[in-house]
Write a structure and sequence with these properties.
CATH superfamily: Vaccinia Virus protein VP39
Structural class: alpha/beta
Mean pLDDT: 94
CATH architecture: 3-Layer(aba) Sandwich
Number of helices: 13
Shape: globular
Helix content: 25-40%
Strand order of the largest sheet: 5-4-1-6-7-9-8
Low-confidence stretches: none
Number of strands: 9
CATH topology: Rossmann fold
Strand content: 15-25%
Largest sheet: 7 strands, mixed
């Protein structure tokens, strides 16, 4: 399994203008990678997005000449109902240096543009555009390994979980990454407003909280999962919270649009040089923190939950 610093370096290359994402994803990827011992050739990555997170976690490598900010829509201001990453340019390219040892049989997402990006990786045998509020167009007991990093986005959470269980083979594994309502304690609208005013919090949040339709307390998730007698909880582990939650909440979030405009208007050599220097600074600043970080259950806002279908 790769080290956190390996993950941090790879995610910094791709998410360089959002270093807070690289920090979080390196820690989340380590937890995800621990579940790959259950990986099955009949596998599905639910809400896979552009596929980069799973691709890198499973061992894939991408040339540092390519990153997510070369294919985003920066024509509008950030807000909850506008996703700057939900954009696809026919010239979008990714230079794959190394393919993961395993690939997913299926990937799904509700955003067509993200699926087009995922297709470029050649990491998914099949890609399906699908809204998780509805039953998946997949036969029951199809997969031995089911991974979902965004079940909390789905308004009908219980229906969605039951559908994931439906498509899992008996003896198969379901891996869920669940963000909890504890994130409200680390949202700038709540903690920063007394210091900086309402505009600060609204600019940083940009409508994010409103997009997490199924967000629940930790105990609520567990009760809803345990209602289904077909699964058993095998493991639950906190991913992150406390200071990392504050770092991720703000980070470079309000600034990456203008920074991306600057980065994408200079010549390629200048862009590459600036990106290299930028990444080196953040890697040096945060590598010790990333290496030593341990999530505390009492302050965690995100958990990884491993289920086994009976």
């Amino acid at each position: 399994m790769q080290s956190r610093i390996d993950y941090f370096t790879k995610f910094m290359d791709f998410f360089w203008l959002r270093p807070e994402n690289a920090i979080l994803l390196s820690i989340r990827a380590e937890k995800y990678a621990e579940t790959l011992k259950y990986f099955d050739k009949d596998s599905i990555d639910v809400s896979c997005g552009d596929g980069i997170f799973s691709f890198i976690t499973l061992g894939g490598e991408i040339s540092n000449n390519y990153d997510m900010f070369q294919a985003i829509d920066i024509s509008q201001k950030r807000k909850g109902d506008f996703d700057t990453y939900d954009f696809y340019d026919k010239n979008y390219q990714i230079e794959v240096i190394k393919q993961p040892k395993n690939n997913y049989k299926y990937g799904t997402d509700w955003k067509k543009n993200l699926l087009k990006k995922a297709e470029v990786l050649s990491f998914y045998d099949n890609l399906i555009e699908h809204d998780n509020n509805k039953m998946m167009p997949i036969e029951e007991s199809s997969f031995g390994y089911v991974y979902s990093n965004s079940a909390y986005w789905v308004r009908q959470f219980e229906n969605h979980i039951n559908d994931l269980i439906r498509i899992t083979k008996p003896g198969g594994t379901i891996v869920l990454e669940l963000k909890t309502k504890n994130i409200n304690n680390y949202n700038s609208i709540n903690y920063a407003t007394p210091y900086f005013g309402e505009k600060f919090g609204k600019i940083v949040d940009a409508g994010r909280l409103e997009t997490w339709k199924g967000l629940k307390e930790y105990e609520e998730y567990i009760k809803l999962i345990e209602k289904n007698d077909l699964v058993e909880i095998k493991n639950i582990s906190p991913i992150y919270g406390d200071m990392l939650a504050y770092i991720w909440d703000i980070g470079m979030r309000p600034l990456f649009n203008p920074l991306a405009k600057l980065a994408n208007t200079v010549d390629s050599d200048t862009r590459s040089s600036v990106k290299k220097e930028w990444c080196e600074i953040f890697l040096e600043m945060f590598s010790e923190y990333v290496s030593n970080y341990e999530a505390k259950p009492n302050s965690a806002i995100e958990w990884i939950v491993v289920l086994e279908k009976k």
